[in-house]
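Quick one: structure for this chain?
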Amino acid sequence: RYHSTQVSNEELKAISTMLTNFTPSQAFPALDLARLAVLHPDAASSGRQALWDGVIQRTVVLCNDPSGLEGPAVVAVPMLSLRLFANAFRGGPGSCRAATSHLGEILDCAAGQVKSSNKNIRGSVATLLYNVCFFLHQEKKGNVPFATQIVKIADGIIIAKTYETEALFRAMVALGTIVMDSSEAKDAARALFLLAKVEPAASSHTEQV
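Got it. Here's what it folds into:
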């Protein structure tokens, strides 16, 4: 049980070692373990920031360089990378700080997958955007980092017209949150004429969207 169990440094280092030593196409089982472990309160505690920094740094490389991927890994690696990043922003202070320090690269990974033909990858992009914006909103530290980059990803999701209802809803909530929190994001949204794009994109979905 999460509230009564602990995850040792050796166990987390084993995941990190797998990510480092396995070929890109073999790495996805380690990514699957990592995206589950990062939700564990003890595993993601403050003292584990350095471990998660290494895991996220390696995952960023795997996600942003798909050239070495083949077979099931072509879908599994980007999908699980995005889910790991999304979960890191829901984990403890150690994983949150590690993910925040690589936020620009994480968003690059999301931007590179916006037009994916795979439903699960598209859903992971939207969930990551949602979790990032929710985290930044909770932090309330004034200037929102990478606000323009976040808005551009949301714009890509909206104009793609391939996102399922739940994924589009999460992207809409993320966009609304970042625009309310950041004048830079609001200016970026205006420059992209998002006001004119949002309603047509939402009209074929549920009332909630």
